[in-house]
Design a protein that fits this description.
binds adenosine-5'-diphosphate, elongated, 2 domains, OB fold (Dihydrolipoamide Acetyltransferase, E2P), Rossmann fold, alpha+beta, 6-stranded mixed β-sheet, 20 strands
C-alpha cells in the first residue's frame, strides 16, 4: 500500500456559522455572528483585544458551546459534535510543544491520542514534517530549534491528523517582525498547497492583509464586516472598519449640499465628496468621510483655500521608501499623510502647511451603531 500524500488526501471543509451567540452573565461576547467559508479559504478573525475572536475560534473548535446558533462543516451540523471528532488542527501562540519530546514524537502525539495504528505513526509524522520542510530535524528537541522551526513543528503537528480545518490562535505573535513576515508567507503557501481551510486569529491588520482571502472584522462580539481585504479597505461599511483597516483621516459630520457640491461638514472643515458617494445617504445624515493618508498631499500654506485643512507639521517619520507626515490643526486634530520621497514639498516639524486631496478619493461611510 502506498502512503497517501497530503496533497491527495486533504481537502478543506466548508464552514458555516449561523447566528452564533455566546453570553457570559450580561456580557454578549459573540453577538449573532453568521459567516460562510468556502473550502480552502484562508479567513482571518480580526479585531481589537476583547472583541471576541478567541471565543469564536473556541466555539468553532468545540472547546466552548455557543449559547445559541449553529456550526456546520460541509453542510453538516456539528454544533454538538465533541472536539476530537471535528477533525480540526490547531496552532497556538506559544506553540505548546512538549519540551522533553523530540520533534518526531511531538508530531506523532496527536496520532497516539487518536489511536492511529502504531505502524503508521512514524510515516505520517515524517510526511507532515516533509510538508513543512523539516526533514532531518526528527530527533532534535524543541529547545534546539529556532522560533520559526518550532512554529513549523507546531504546524506539522496540527496537520498530521489531516484536519478539515486548521485553526490558528495568534500563532505568530511571539515572533520578531522579520520572522513573522516570513512565516506568514510560508503558512499561506503551505495551506494553499495542502488545500486547507484556515481560520486565523489576529489583532494585527497587516497580517490579516497579507494572509487572508477574507477578513471577518469583529468589534464587541459583533461581526462588523466580512469580505476580501481590499473590499474592507476600499468600501468600509462603517467607521469601525475604516479605522481598523489601514490608517485613515476621519471627518464626522452632516452630509449637506453646498452651492457646488456635496460636503461633509464636521463643524470646522467642509469635506467635498462626489455625488456617487453622497447618493448612498440621505441629506442631513450623520456620516463619516474617510481620507486615506496616501491620497493627501502637503502644500505650502494656502490662504486661498480657507475651508480646507491648515495646520503645522508635528512629525516627519521616515519609513524606508516612504515618509509619514503628521499635521496638527488649530483644534489639535492630527492628520496622517503618507508620501514618497520624490517630487514632494520638503517639510520639517513646525512648518505651516495646507493639506489637499481630490474629492474622488474620499469615501463616505456610516458611523457604527452601538447599543
Ligand atoms: P479576543 O480574543 O478578541 O481578545 P475574547 O474572545 O478572548 O476576545 O473575549 C471576548 C470577551 O469575552 C472579553 O470581554 C472577555 O473578557 C470575555 N470573556 C472571555 N471568556 C470569558 C469567560 N470564561 N467568562 C466571562 N467572560 C469571558
Amino acid at each position: 500500500m502506498t502512503t497517501p500524500t497530503y496533497k491527495n488526501d486533504l481537502r478543506g471543509a466548508s464552514l458555516r456559522l449561523r447566528g452564533v451567540k455566546k453570553i457570559y452573565g450580561n456580557n454578549v461576547v459573540a453577538d449573532d455572528v453568521s459567516i460562510e467559508i468556502s473550502p480552502s479559504e484562508f479567513v482571518t478573525l480580526l479585531g481589537a483585544s476583547g472583541s471576541g475572536k478567541t471565543t469564536l475560534l473556541r466555539i468553532i473548535a468545540g472547546f466552548l458551546d455557543p449559547t445559541a446558533g449553529s456550526i456546520e462543516f460541509d453542510d453538516v451540523d456539528i454544533t454538538t459534535v465533541p472536539v476530537h471528532k471535528r477533525r480540526i488542527g490547531m496552532v497556538f501562540q506559544n506553540y505548546a510543544l512538549f519540551p522533553h519530546m523530540d520533534v518526531l514524537h511531538n508530531v506523532m502525539f496527536p496520532l497516539e491520542m487518536h489511536k492511529v495504528p502504531r505502524a503508521d505513526r512514524k510515516n505520517l509524522a515524517r510526511e507532515a514534517l516533509a510538508a513543512v520542510k523539516l526533514e532531518g530535524f526528527e530527533s532534535r528537541k524543541p529547545s534546539q530549534l529556532s522560533g520559526g522551526q518550532q512554529q513549523r513543528v507546531a504546524l506539522a503537528r496540527a496537520i498530521v491528523m489531516k484536519p478539515r480545518l486548521l485553526l490558528m490562535d495568534e500563532p505568530l505573535g511571539a515572533l520578531d517582525r522579520r520572522l513573522r513576515e516570513a512565516m506568514q508567507i510560508e503558512i499561506l503557501k503551505l495551506s494553499r498547497e495542502l488545500g486547507l481551510t484556515v481560520i486565523n486569529v489576529t489583532h494585527d491588520q497587516e497580517e490579516a492583509f497579507t494572509m487572508s482571502d477574507k477578513i471577518a472584522l469583529l468589534s464587541d462580539g459583533k461581526l462588523v464586516q466580512y469580505g476580501a481585504p481590499e473590499e474592507l479597505y476600499l468600501h468600509p461599511v462603517n467607521d469601525t472598519t475604516a479605522e481598523f483597516l489601514g490608517e485613515s483621516n476621519l471627518f464626522r459630520g452632516k452630509l449637506s449640499r453646498s452651492s457646488t457640491s456635496w460636503v461633509v461638514d464636521d463643524g470646522h472643515v467642509n469635506i467635498e465628496v462626489t455625488d456617487i458617494q453622497a447618493s448612498r445617504f440621505a441629506e442631513g445624515s450623520q456620516v463619516v468621510a474617510v481620507v486615506r493618508p496616501w491620497s493627501v498631499s502637503v502644500r505650502s500654506r494656502d490662504h486661498s483655500n480657507p475651508g480646507g485643512v491648515q495646520g503645522a507639521v508635528s512629525a516627519v517619520i521616515y519609513a524606508g521608501e516612504s515618509q509619514k507626515v503628521l499635521v496638527t490643526d488649530e483644534r489639535n486634530k492630527e492628520y496622517i499623510v503618507r508620501r514618497t520621497l520624490e517630487d514632494e514639498l520638503p517639510v520639517e516639524v513646525g512648518d505651516r502647511v495646507s493639506l489637499r486631496w481630490s474629492p474622488e478619493h474620499v469615501v463616505v461611510t456610516a458611523p457604527m451603531v452601538r447599543n
